[in-house]
Amino acid sequence: xxxxxxxxxxxxxxxxxxxxxxxxxxxxxxxxxxxxxxxxxxxxxxxxxxxxxxxxxxxxxxxxxxxxxxxxxxxxxxxxxxxxxxxxxxxxxxxxxxxxxxxxxxxxxxxxxxxxxxxxxxxxxxxxxxxxxxxxxxxxxxxxxxxxxxxxxxxxxxxxxxxxxxxxxxxxxxxxxxxxxxxxxxxxxxxxxxxxxxxxxxxxxxxxxxxxxxxxxxxxxxxxxxxxxxxxxxxxxxxxxxxxxxxxxxxxxxxxxxxxxxxxxxxxxxxxxxxxxxxxxxxxxxxxxxxxxxxxxxxxxxxxxxxxxxxxxxxxxxxxxxxxxxxxxxxxxxxxxxxxxxxxxxxxxxxxxxxxxxxxxxxxxxxxxxxxxxxxxxxxxxxxxxxxxxxxxxxxxxxxxxxxxxxxxxxxxxx
Amino acid sequence: xxxxxxxxxxxxxxxxxxxxxxxxxxxxxxxxxxxxxxxxxxxxxxxxxxxxxxxxxxxxxxxxxxxxxxxxxxxxxxxxxxxxxxxxxxxxxxxxxxxxxxxxxxxxxxxxxxxxxxxxxxxxxxxxxxxxxxxxxxxxxxxxxxxxxxxxxxxxxxxxxxxxxxxxxxxxxxxxxxxxxxxxxxxxxxxxxxxxxxxxxxxxxxxxxxxxxxxxxxxxxxxxxxxxxxxxxxxxxxxxxxxxxxxxxxxxxxxxxxxxxxxxxxxxxxxxxxxxxxxxxxxxxxxxxxxxxxxxxxxxxxxxxxxxxxxxxxxxxxxxxxxxxxxxxxxxxxxxxxxxxxxxxxxxxxxxxxxxxxxxxxxxxxxxxxxxxxxxxxxxxx
Amino acid sequence: xxxxxxxxxxxxxxxxxxxxxxxxxxxxxxxxxxxxxxxxxxxxxxxxxxxxxxxxxxxxxxxxxxxxxxxxxxxxxxxxxxxxxxxxxxxxxxxxxxxxxxxxxxxxxxxxxxxxxxxxxxxxxxxxxxxxxxxxxxxxxxxxxxxxxxxxxxxxxxxxxxxxxxxxxxxxxxxxxxxxxxxxxxxxxxxxxxxxxxxxxxxxxxxxxxxxxxxxxxxxxxxxxxxxx
Lengths: 415, 382, 229
Hints:
Chain A is built from 16 helices and 2 strands. Chain A is mainly α and 415 residues long. Chain A is globular, with a radius of gyration of 22 Å. Chain A starts with 27 loop residues before the first helix and ends in a 31-residue tail after the last helix. In chain A, 54% of the residues are buried.
């Protein structure tokens, strides 16, 4: 059964409008750096890109547009575990947000696309996403539409082609940036912008939570990501991950590409993450550190959308992730108490931009209520390091630091 | 012709396939040479590797008759793995080192095919305590392959080796394996520095445990040890490949940190007549390679923590590893294995955790670094 | 009758022993002494006394000629006698600046710079001892998990023997573990919290200061290279 006709796809609304550049936390230098010389922003290009972004005709059966999985009202995601493409096919990965994606060094969870332009070209051709067989099919379709012919001529000076289409979409995506959050106002000097709980959460973020090292934020690059790839143990939730990983490594060592392709088709090699792009041992099961802005809008969480609430994600980190032979050594048990977890979530909630404040507030309430009763990832004994002191060699192992002395949370971590 | 738009992933796969196809066209000898060479050398041969794809060392050692000086015909190649320098505290105090040791055990158990045996490189305990050693023994029991164990100074100087010998037997011993004569040599004896200072066993142990205090004596094999070694080796022909397992390096690297064996020159004299000798040592917790005359030296990684490179005395053949990231408790730590080829020529594979593996081949050392050099690291210690 | 306050200085052309240099303090302190030396008449060298008035001619001395010790002493004795002739009732003091005598403040050499430019040997010694003690304190903490407040038996020297690889000369720098610009003390605290598993120290904690001192001291001489990654 088809995903539905044209009318099912999201329509552009206020959430889809290009965002202004006068936001308090906008990193000017980074913004300039992140716009490629080969694709400067112009209003006409942006408008064309926006039209393309919402156009389901780009898909093979006219059912699915970019906006289908990257819906503006839903924080430019679909808020599903993994995305659904044409013919209701399920993909393997959770749809990342377009918001602030322009600042990512690479695109996709495994970083296989080096730019927004390159990224835009791929879902269209993916059989489980938008299902076009080849770029030519798309280009032919675009050329057959009078409005596109005219607009492409105006913007690019030539008939529609695949590269230009991607450029236009990327230009539109570069207008979706959000730096008007309580956190940005706090960093700009307004101590009251974060409430006490969020300020304590900021302390945890910088200290005991060990979040900062990977979800890096500083005034020059306030993106909450180091743009690197880490195995934090999420793939290890899948029972066959380790066996799959060892098979993949052995194949690379023996130089057998054909077998890797076959393995990819028959099994779920997707869980190997960045390894599939680089074939390096250190990248097995590693996925990109995503940014955290508007995180209340981008649930569910992790590359496989496996965690419903922020409490679940923190529980995952708190107990030291899921042990697997390829787990990044930086992942270790944290010993966070319940109040500290609540504070940390309060901080993350402060990363919501004003436009989404109302929707995020609702989502926060939902997640909080849910967290009081259901915590599938929580393992307090593991988090606090209690079990491991018990005899026997069954892990998980790790040491917890003593709590830092209370100081003004606004000062800890620095500005 | 319409341009194909492939995902970066597909492009990488195709490029890699091209490289591998080209590799297959080479004759076996050249293939082994290339596979053991650094990416730069490969590029020089006209095969361009895309930046995303690194040639992984083929499992077999590079056997090039040009570099082999001897070899008993018909000796099968074999592999042994190692776990070294676990420095265990009791679990009640610290789980960090237990975690590292168990990770190494897991790695070694996952090797396929399994190694012939697993060498334990010394410093099982951190403070020489019986409970630390028993914890270590418990952990090593999880290893599937047979263990060949070696003592380190952290195991010895609390009770002068009493508990160690009770648990694990004599500190020096030898055996033959598939044509290779293997000697485990106790090389961390120290001349008495504690009696004159009226030190308790605890104080003595803590002094030995500190790398940089300069109070402890320098390591030595000692007169008796060298006698024993001479005797043991006298039963073996000079053509037989020799493997020496030693905790201290058996050469002189950096005296202030006891990266040093005081009677190294005399030990090397004893080893001189033997055509192919490889020393495998612990204690230094870093990637370390050296070649002195006919002897190759390989340092083992620790599972517990890395040491920085010494300010001077670093053998020039050593490929340094990137300095450690303290955020990651496993960084610059790991374990590894040694592939022993025909003729007792040894390739050392460093299984660095959270990094890509590095292989130091026999040909690299024997050619004095002019062939087969692995890529250089990016961030050195300073 | 006492002469005007002050000391006479007799300076002689040669430097070889025997000559005692005595500092002169003129009454008109700001005026540099002017030496009126009459031209030689007998073809020798005129030697002037630095009172600006007395001089004698040494007839056998040629310009540029070096005198022996005895000759020099003879010349200076002559000058001295001549001066005494002029001032028959003079009593003058010879101040002897021996190695172990503290000179009266008035006799000290004029100070050219400010206070910092000159420590007496004694003050330098005190400074050195204090510095060494502070560094030693830091060294002890560096090597002791207990003193660091660590809870798992890990001390700094386990990864940094002799403070190797601490590179204090590269601070301030953007520290990737903290993802912001850090000073050495920030990284010390981070290490205490993370690998050492202790409580981070407050900025004015004496332990933190001592640790910093020890770490910096171990890199004495390394060129400053702040920001180096």
